[in-house]
Design a protein that fits this description.
With 163 residues, this protein is mostly helical. It has one domain (19-154). The protein has 7 helices and no strands. The termini are far apart.
C-alpha cells in the first residue's frame, strides 16, 4: 500500500515539476534528466557486467547465472573490448569516456531540437535561464567526464604522431 501511494506521489510530483518547468522555462527538462539518469544506470549495469566477466567471480556472476545470463570470461571477448574497461583504456579511451561523450551529444541534440522548435514559432518566448540550464547540464558532463578524456588526448600529442 505504501509503495503504491509513493509511486502515485512521485508520478504527481513529476507531472507538477514538468508543468512548472514548461511554464517558467519554456522547456520540460524532466524527460531529458530522466533519460540521462536511465542512460547512466544502464551504462553502470553494463560496466558491472563487464567487470564480472573480467573477474568471473562474485555476486554479479551468481545473479546473472540465476537470471539465465551467461557471463563470458575475458578470453571470450575481443581484446579491444576488454581494454575499454582497463585502467589505460583502448588507445587511452575508456568505456566511461565514450558514455560521457554520448551523454553530452544527447544534451546538445536536445538543445538544438529545442532551438529549432523555438525558431519555427516566432511568438514563443524563451527565458535565457533555459539556455543556461542546458549549458549547466552540458558543463556538468564536461567537467565530470569529458575533460579527463581531453586531457588524455592532449597528453598523447596526436598531432606530432601524424607529422
Amino acid at each position: 500500500m505504501a509503495l503504491v501511494s509513493s509511486a502515485l506521489i512521485a508520478r504527481q510530483g513529476a507531472k507538477e515539476a514538468s508543468k512548472i518547468s514548461k511554464q517558467m522555462l519554456g522547456f520540460d527538462f524532466i524527460p531529458l534528466l530522466t533519460s540521462l539518469i536511465l542512460y547512466y544506470v544502464i551504462a553502470f549495469a553494463f560496466a558491472k557486467f563487464m567487470e564480472a566477466s573480467k573477474f568471473a567471480t562474485g555476486g554479479i556472476v551468481a545473479i546473472a547465472n540465476f537470471l539465465g545470463f551467461n557471463v563470458p570470461s575475458t578470453e571470450e571477448l575481443p581484446s579491444q573490448w576488454n581494454r575499454l574497461f582497463d585502467e589505460t583504456g583502448y588507445n587511452g579511451v575508456k568505456f566511461w569516456d565514450i558514455i560521457n561523450v554520448v551523454a553530452l551529444l544527447i544534451v546538445i541534440a536536445t538543445a538544438l531540437n529545442f532551438q529549432k522548435s523555438v525558431e519555427s514559432n516566432p511568438e514563443r518566448k524563451v527565458s535565457p535561464i533555459t539556455w543556461a540550464i542546458f549549458a549547466m547540464i552540458g558543463g556538468f558532463i564536461v567537467i565530470t567526464g569529458v575533460s579527463k578524456l581531453v586531457m588524455k588526448l592532449n597528453e598523447r600529442n596526436f598531432q606530432q604522431e601524424f607529422k
